[in-house]
Write a structure and sequence with these properties.
Helix content: 10-25%
Shape: globular
Strand content: 25-35%
Number of helices: 6
Low-confidence stretches: 1-24, 34-79
Order of helices and strands: HEHEEHHHHEEEEE
Mean pLDDT: 74
Length: 287
């Protein structure tokens, strides 16, 4: 990307890098720039995503905008995270995170925006698309109830499928049900599953978020190769609190570093942005 000159030191450290499906529609970045802040990692699986065997219960509706900071009983509010709302799952209820209302990531720095976007979209539209992209990347890319298998793929699709562009819906839906653990628009395994197996499990409590720290850097915003979609790339440093499960005791914290990219184009309704592509890379280490 235009603001990146190489790998971040943390990505070069020992840890497990997880590559979620990479599609080409977003392109590699703004014209004349190179990719990326993400770590080198294992090749993507040929068949993305994995099918959960858990049955889920009713859940919160997705929202493209930041929500009210929760009551002080939430670990998220104590650490500066925003909360989208409670999500009910077969494994319990948890507070799904969103960037805090005052997070600078919501507001675009002109330096990270590719100038030719302004020839197609107004500044207001660019910011609107960016906020929609940012919310989805954090709320679903990082903290989806699919991550951990607490929802079934079809239940997630019932709530979120309309956010996917029609031309991508077949591929996106298939990626959620064809058996690979890390592919698809949303990761369905736990972040730590491949390295630690069942040694850890997520915490499900109605007054607690799974994340305890979230730092976001907006890397670039540019025009995708389809000449319609607005692309947001972010770098995320986050921490999750996990509970020991079967196997090695380990630690109760995992550190996640991620490069996340999402493309979206205008939908039919006012303020509607449809997802047209995505690219996510995660590196996970024990805290």
């Amino acid at each position: 990307m235009g603001t990146s000159t190489g790998l971040r030191p943390a990505f070069a450290a020992a840890g497990l890098a997880l590559l979620v499906t990479v599609l080409s529609g977003c392109g590699n970045g703004p014209a004349g720039t190179e990719t990326s802040k993400a770590p080198a990692s294992a090749p993507p699986s040929a068949s993305p995503s994995f099918k959960s065997t858990e049955k889920a219960s009713p859940k919160a509706k997705p929202s493209p905008t930041p929500t009210t900071t929760p009551a002080p009983t939430s670990s998220a509010s104590q650490r500066g995270l925003g909360v989208k709302g409670n999500v009910e799952t077969a494994q319990g209820t948890y507070l799904q995170v969103s960037p805090a209302e005052d997070d600078p990531a919501w507001t675009l720095d002109p330096a990270v925006v590719e100038p030719n976007l302004l020839s197609l979209y107004s500044q207001e539209q660019i910011e609107e698309a960016h906020r929609s992209n940012l919310a989805f990347m954090v709320e679903e890319g990082l903290d989806s109830p699919l991550n951990g298998g607490a929802w079934m793929p079809e239940e997630w699709w019932a709530e979120n499928g309309e956010r996917i562009a029609p031309e991508l819906q077949g591929m996106a839906r298939q990626s959620l049900s064809d058996g690979s653990p890390f592919g698809g628009i949303v990761m369905q395994s736990t972040f730590h599953q491949e390295r630690y197996g069942d040694s850890y499990r997520y915490i499900y409590e109605s007054d607690r978020s799974r994340f305890t720290k979230l730092d976001i850097e907006v890397v670039d915003v540019w025009l995708a190769e389809d000449n319609k979609s607005i692309v947001t790339e972010i770098y995320v440093a986050a921490e999750m609190e996990v509970a020991p499960g079967a196997g090695e005791p380990g630690t109760d914290t995992q550190i996640i570093e991620a490069s996340m990219t999402l493309c979206s184009r205008p939908g039919q309704g006012a303020g509607e942005w449809l997802i047209t592509d995505w690219r996510n890379k995660f590196q996970v280490t024990a805290g």
